[in-house]
Amino acid sequence: MRSAFLAALFALGALGPIRAAACTGICAKSKDLVLVGNNEDWGNPRTRIWFVPAEEGRHGRMFVGFDNGFPQGGMNEKGLFFDGFATPRLEVAPTPDKQMYFGNIAEKALAECATVDEVIRLLDKYRRPDRAVFLFADRNGDAVAIEPEAAVRKKHWFFVQTNFYQSLTPPGTETCPRFKIATRMLEESRGAISLDLFRRILAATHQEGNNPTQYSNIYDLSARVMYLYHFHNFENVVRIDLAEELRKGPHKLEIPALFPPTHAAAVYARGYEKERTK
User: Fold this and answer.
1) Global confidence as pTM
2) C-alpha span between 26 and 36 (Å, rounded)
3) DSSP one-letter string for 228-254
4) Strands (E), the chain
5) Of 92-106, 127-141, 149-163, where does mean pLDDT reach its minimum?
6) How far apart are CA 220 and CA 217, in angstroms?
7) What is the pLDDT of residues 24-35, one digit of tens each?
8) Percent of the chain predicted with pLDDT > 90
9) Architecture of 4-276 per CATH?
């Protein structure tokens, strides 16, 4: 099974249809604190984190995703974050002047860029997927949603992204309930952001059913620390310090193994494995 974002990136007709999926991304800045949060909603419970130390001309970085090894999101040692969102296919104008990049362009961005401005300049050189949105945020509090034909910049103290094109949706006409819940909770906080606020927003926007929230994370981009939650259980958290992990060299961690077992996660994983063997 391929993840939603992987399918979106390579949806040129070769990989078949994309299953319904939903993810939520939020970012905000208050004084010296810059936080980013994400729910990863998909059917595959085989989730993991992996670490890539710095090389000449390439930043050290960490990624989260599934057992296919394709990055769904992550952060680098400069405090740059990304996550991907599957979206409906968009008819785009031909761009013969743009290069084709075979791979995950967001992984390239985390390896080579430190800020949102650098990401925008890099991605402007390449053709973009026609059914995906990239959310990038940096340690300065800047953020952008990179769409197939637009870049939607963060204009206020917070930014929210779900599975739709904001450039094609007039403000106030958004219909995604997760987008509206996250926006309302951020507005009601009046700029008093915290790990607890982001945890509550992710809990309020998590998904269950066929494509449940497999993991959630909150990134402190100033400290380069990630707070990780498994299978929409927001009682247990694992703190990941990027600098400490990079000093260990290249390695990976299976997300379920980092947490005490829960009934809901175990039942879902057994059902998933049973379906795979049919």
Assistant:
1) 0.91
2) 6
3) EEETTEEEEEEEEEHHHHHTT-SEEEE
4) 24-30, 33-41, 47-52, 61-66, 71-76, 81-86, 132-137, 143-146, 151-153, 158-161, 213-220, 225-230, 233-241, 251-254
5) 92-106
6) 10
7) 999 999 988 999
8) 82
9) 4-Layer Sandwich (3.60)
